[in-house]
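dumping this here before i forget
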Amino acid sequence: MRHKKIKRVFARIKKGRQLVGIEVENHNYTIFLSGSNVKQNTGLNINEIEMLEGSLIRPDFYKKGEKMFNEKICEKDNLLIRDFWITLVPNNIEKFKAINQTKKIDFKQIKQVFTFTRNGRVNCGIKTLDDEVVFVTKKRLEGLTSLDESEFHILENSYINPIYYKNGEIMAGGKKCYSDNSIIKELNLRFSGNVEQMHQNFEENEPNFYYSHSNNSNYSSNSYAEYGGPSDGYGGHIDDDFINDVLGGHPDAYWNID
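structure:
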């Protein structure tokens, strides 16, 4: 198959596994690769993959009846990838990044993940390198990542691009939102690698501080006094009713949508 022009690139996390989807012009299929596959082939991090739009990909598919790498027999043509080649446009990484910089989404790198209990429920704070904090429920983060609470710390160095409801929008629970940049609509989380890699990276670069609900975190009911809440996007102080709106009431399906 010849090189095809890439028209869209996106990432999805499903059952704890992150895949990069690549759509090509004049074809109705999507090529799914791991973030590691894409980085090895292009040198781009998971927060840079949108820059590939306009570049070229040549996929090599297994044919029906062929034995695949896992010793199974392929049952359908042009479904499973045997190999692939991506050609950057322009084919120079420095020029490529300079020209395609505007295609990048404004992801924020995660500095710290902590848990705390408020009103009898365990919640999570996700702090980025610019010291902004996003609050989500433990249940929500577990559902999205398939990680146990004791593993949340490996999300450090991953990325988020939170999007908020606008004033007047109807939220997932059917209620109306009465302020801008307050209640999260989409978290848009991207893993820095696969789960095994993230565990290894954390162990090799373990920070001097680490707090979690499971090891008697000091982020208890006083957390908001220190960190505030997302009243103006992230910072500021908010009342209990608003905290409950921020931390609950929205189905998991509304998380991680690019």
